[in-house]
Write a structure and sequence with these properties.
Largest sheet: 7 strands, mixed
Strand content: 15-25%
Oligomer: single chain
Number of helices: 24
Number of strands: 27
Shape: globular
Bound molecules: iron/sulfur cluster
């Protein structure tokens, strides 16, 4: 890795940034052979460029919101491979498969390469000057309150510029929407502990009881949690940590658990209150108000409601009492219901009575620059925007970092309401479903060719400002970074204030250098500070710790009885968040489509996971195509029969079923978001992702599922391959 020895901008100039010295293009559509790609030698190379030897640069992964630090290996001007940045306290040098696929997002042949203006059903290429002029004209022609900006989670200097732009317009309408987010848990944590995202110290816990938090797969910051989990399992204190996972559909974390307990959907809160009651009966000191609430949750009743055998409840209570501290985690399995907030509160109460708060549930760190702190999203924000669009209150809509046309349930009628907005601008990498609906599409730089800063929501150790910097020259001269676009828009509105910044790079450098004292560089000169920050890929922030409180109130806590039988829609649908496709934003990266799902090993398609008993009752076998119908719509997919799921539940992975986006995403699988019913958490108003009821019927076709494992007990080219084994045989509920 290069350490502070050169000017980063000169490096990019050497590589031909903005010049004709080295002409590079995407690997997907052009090649040296077809004569469209030119390879020329460097006219002038820096000392550190040695042909065939890689140089590493630190930056920040953009494949999910965890904000892991990355090191990109660059050779002859091209980034070839990503590794984790050892200096980042989020991922400590490690990465996940989704992060590795970042190079495929960068070299993707379907990236948009120039601004496109709608002309009927087509996009007509226009110049940036014309595109930005058009925006100026449109926002100038409407009232400020009719301009709205929809984004995914944002942080850092782009967030600050975005706010400044909205302020300059006089609009306060910034809607932050995340299709898959722990919003109910954040709200419950705020109530219970005073912070939305307390630090979960798995490494200090002796038992982890997780209610469907897939922290090894797709939950919040999986690379970080995987490392914590490794320490938890290492048994430094002589006793190997015990993981108990309670959920209705097995996740990757559930598959790694010592004890996997399948539970009736939505009864997680009842289970938590039953455990408190059992702990009180076993002599644990429980506050009076809590004891009064939990006394009716007897082990027998809880077993009947949840479907978890009484002996498992008793053994788990004994384990929690014996091994302290423990850590109880409320994951998406608990929060995805109309009473998700009550479930999450009951789980927080369990942490409190076990004395975990302050030991394994810790406070976070204050952020010294609140204007750059992460703005996290929820689904309620999209609902409000949707209502405003339906009432013709939005005249100009910007969208960035989110694809609501793909992720909104059909019942919202978001696509229809979007059509009521006269001028829609999408900042995008691909022509995804939302960009297709836009009037103006502005192509963005990839994360590997962009400048920016990122402040992740979950950092175990203090706070840090991650830096994103280009690892190579832009592949397509017609793309721009979001920071540069916002700066250009701000120059239209506040020219005096921003005229001193040639581009976003100069704005960013100036903003950081002028705050170097608070960014750990008080004693360094400007260049030394800046080059060290780029070299490390981050700066550590000095923030005061936020203490955690422990005042979960049991007053008024009532967790409703388990779901009622519904003869028309007898099954619960769990839309599963996979470690690779997540909410579908990465579906056009073929490595991710090709990576086998860790539990089913299925590739390149959706599937309906179903328990053998349910399949037998419906006369269904593996590979049958079935129709899954809710009150809101229907999808068709192949069935995968699997014992790691409750018989009352079926599960379909999210992220598949794109109708646009690119050649690798379009037409692959089905979109489970579309059939979700409009049921909301009663306290937060969040979409209750697990509350949709469905019926399943055979569609009259059968296919051979494309899996990585091959046929059970089979071989490949005469060589034995891994044999599939049912979870019954491996005894998933084995004792520890
Ligand atoms: S968890 Fe994986 S995808 Fe997400 S930021 Fe970290 S490396 Fe990237």
């Amino acid at each position: 890795m290069i350490e502070n020895s050169f000017n980063r901008r000169d490096f990019l100039k050497v590589l031909g940034w903005g010049s004709a010295t080295v002409a590079l293009s995407g690997c997907g559509n052009t090649s040296v052979e077809d004569g469209k790609e030119f390879v020329t030698s460097y006219v002038q190379t820096a000392d550190y460029i040695i042909p065939s030897i890689g140089t590493y640069f630190n930056s920040t992964c953009a494949q999910c919101d965890a904000g892991c630090g990355i090191m990109g290996r660059v050779r002859e001007g091209r980034v070839l491979k990503l590794e984790g940045n050892p200096k980042s306290s989020i991922n400590n040098g490690k990465m996940c498969g989704l992060g590795q696929a970042g190079v495929q997002a960068h070299y993707n042949p379907d990236r948009i390469r120039e601004p496109l203006l709608r002309n009927g059903d087509k996009g007509e290429a226009i110049t940036w000057e014309k595109a930005l002029g058009l925006i100026n004209e449109k926002v100038g022609g409407v009232r400020a309150e009719n301009v709205a900006f929809l984004t995914g989670g944002v942080s850092g200097h782009v967030k600050a510029l975005l706010k400044n732009y909205l302020d300059a317009l006089g609009s306060g309408h910034h809607y932050v929407y995340e299709a898959v987010a722990p919003s109910v848990m954040r709200a419950a944590n705020k109530k219970a502990y005073g912070v939305e995202m307390p630090r979960l110290r798995m490494d200090k816990a002796k038992v982890i009881l997780s209610f469907g938090a897939d922290f090894l797969g797709a939950w919040i910051s999986p690379v970080h949690f995987s490392q914590q989990y490794a320490r938890f399992r290492k048994a430094d204190n002589g006793k190997r940590g015990v993981l108990v996972q309670v959920e209705s559909k097995m996740t990757l974390t559930g598959a790694n658990a010592d004890r996997w307990l399948v539970i009736r959907p939505g009864t997680e809160g009842i289970f938590a209150l039953g455990l408190i009651n059992a702990l009180a009966a076993a002599g644990l000191s429980v506050p009076g108000d809590v004891a009064a609430v939990v006394k009716e949750y007897t082990t027998d009743r809880v077993s009947k409601d949840t479907g978890v055998p009484t002996e498992h409840i008793a053994k788990l209570a004994a384990l929690l009492k014996e091994r302290s501290p423990s850590l109880i985690i409320a994951g998406s399995a608990a929060e995805g219901y109309a009473h998700g907030s009550q479930n999450a509160t009951a789980i927080a109460l369990l942490n409190q009575v076990l004395g975990n708060v302050g030991k394994t549930v810790e406070g976070s760190s204050g952020i010294p620059f609140p204007q750059m702190a992460p703005t996290t999203g929820n689904r309620q924000a999209l609902q409000i925007l949707n209502d405003n669009m339906a009432q013709d209150k939005v005249k100009v809509l910007f969208s960035y970092g989110s694809n609501p046309v793909f992720t909104a349930p059909a019942s919202m009628k978001l696509k229809e309401n979007l059509k009521k907005v006269p001028f829609k601008v999408a900042f995008a990498h691909y022509m995804d479903e939302t960009a297709v609906e836009a009037d103006l599409v502005l192509p963005l730089n990839s994360a590997l060719e962009d400048w920016g800063t990122v402040m992740p929501e979950y950092i175990a150790d203090g706070a840090q400002l991650n830096i994103r910097q280009p690892l190579m020259e832009k592949l397509h001269p017609g793309t721009l970074g979001m920071g540069d676009i916002l700066l250009a828009l701000l120059k239209q509105r506040r020219p005096e204030e921003y005229k001193g910044y040639e581009d976003f790079y100069s704005y960013l450098r100036n903003a950081m250098v002028s705050n170097k004292g608070a960014l750990g560089g008080a004693n360094a000169d400007d260049n030394t500070f800046w080059e060290a920050a780029l070299s490390h890929g981050m700066v550590k922030l000095v923030g005061s710790p936020i203490n955690i409180s422990s005042h979960v109130s049991a007053n008024g806590l009532v967790v409703p009885a388990p779901f009622v039988e519904d003869s028309t829609y007898p099954l619960h649908l769990i839309p599963a968040v996979s470690a690779s496709l997540r909410d579908g934003r990465n579906a056009n990266e073929p490595w991710l489509q090709e990576s086998p799902d860790p539990l089913t090993t299925i590739v390149w398609d959706s599937w309906v996971e179903m328990h053998p008993k349910t399949a037998a009752k419906l006369g269904i076998v593996e590979g049958d195509i079935v129709e899954v119908a809710s009150k809101s719509g229907a999808i068709k997919a192949q069935v995968y029969v699997f014992t790691g799921i409750h018989p009352d539940v079926i599960s379909v992975p999210l992220g598949y079923g794109h109708e646009a986006m690119g050649r690798y995403a379009k037409g692959v699988g089905v979109n489970a978001f579309k059939i979700l019913d409009p049921v909301f958490d009663k306290e937060t108003g969040e979409l209750a992702m697990h509350e949709t009821r469905v019926k399943v019927s055979k569609a009259g076709q059968r296919v051979i599922i494309v899996k990585d494992e091959g046929p059970a007990g089979g071989n490949q080219m005469g060589r034995k391959i891994a044999v599939r084994m049912s979870s019954d045989k491996v005894n998933l509920s084995k004792e520890v």
